[in-house]
Write a structure and sequence with these properties.
Layout lengths: L14 E7 L4 E10 L2 E11 L6 H19 L3 E5 L7 H20 L3 E5 L1 H9 L6 H11 L9 H15 L11 H12 L8
Parallel strand pairs: 1-4, 4-5
Antiparallel strand pairs: 1-2, 2-3
Helix pairs in contact: 1-2, 3-5, 4-5
Length: 198
């Protein structure tokens, strides 16, 4: 029996990326699939854990939520934000613990995982490495043609991670963006810069 070819399978070229914005109380997630030259947001949201719970209970809650997302959406790969080591050592430790729990679940699922620095993701989506969270949310809404913006910056950041991952292999030197993303970035750069509330 002949093996099916890409021409026989319309889903053969589809990449379904899970973007994850890590945390220990709120974890943003978003599923973005490529179909031909178009990117489509399949679903997104925020996993939340009660801040009053001990860290191990919060991590267990988030891990269980991630497993349910993996079962429901069956992504082919994942992109997660790299840990940022700022002045707050305690916050960095907590973020590292959150990433560790998420990475374990992704490894159990057999997914290839790529980490991206925050400024790399922002530049891939907005064209500016120091864009605000609101600017990222606006651009993600445009690029993915969302009917309404995400209900949290965490989910917007997760979708941005997935978009970044889709674009990076096609962007040696920063070129080759799909038309919708190119147009959105060009339009954003044309607008006068004003003060933004953060």
């Amino acid at each position: 029996m002949a093996r099916p070819t890409k021409a026989d399978d319309p889903d053969a070229d589809r990449r379904r990326v899970l973007g994850i914005d890590p945390g220990t109380r709120a974890v943003g997630w978003g599923i973005v699939e490529r179909r031909g030259n178009r990117l489509h947001a399949l679903d997104h949201g925020t996993l939340k854990a009660d801040a009053k719970l001990p860290i191990e209970r919060r991590l267990a809650t988030i891990a269980a939520g991630l497993r349910e997302i993996l079962t429901r959406h069956a992504p082919t790969e994942a992109a997660i934000e790299e840990a940022f080591f700022g002045r707050d050592a305690r916050a960095a430790q907590r973020l590292g613990e959150g990433r560790g729990a998420l990475l374990l679940v992704l490894a159990e699922a057999g997914l290839d995982v790529t980490g991206y620095a925050n400024n790399v993701v922002k530049k891939a989506v907005t064209g500016v490495g120091r864009a605000s969270k609101s600017q990222v949310q606006i651009m993600v809404t445009r690029v993915l043609a969302l009917e309404v913006p995400t209900d949290s910056f965490d989910a917007a950041d997760a979708l941005a991670l997935a978009v970044c991952h889709h674009q990076r292999p096609r962007l040696p030197g920063g070129t080759g963006l799909p038309p919708r993303l190119t147009d959105a970035i060009r339009e954003a750069k044309r607008r006068p810069r004003g003060r933004t509330n953060r």
